[in-house]
Please model this.
Amino acid sequence: MLKLFTHKTAKTQLTGQAYQILDQFYRSFSSNMYNELNIHRYKQIRDAVGLVMRKFDSHDHPLAYTSKLVMYIQARVCLNHLPLTKEQQSWMKKLTDITKHINLNYVYLSPLDSENQFI
Model:
């Protein structure tokens, strides 16, 4: 019983950390001059982060969606040659570490680089 309670507490703590990092990541697109001037290139990533943040509010498997988001951002950055700031890279690494043990037991209904998977 104690192990179950400890597991829930740890998961809640990870969920809180992931939300804080996503919030910082979302805000970074308006605080960085390069990203702000080129928002048309980063808009889909920023919007996807916002959609995943809504999953936290509705308690709809937020860590699983965060894990999907990490893969989505990596795909978008790679396919479109988008540079991320050092802060953004650090947040991506933290999100990867937080979500690396999350089971992704669902089928992708849209391409990996499509933000429709977060709706």
User: Anything to note?
Assistant: The chain has a mean pLDDT of 85. The chain is about 75% helix and 0% strand.
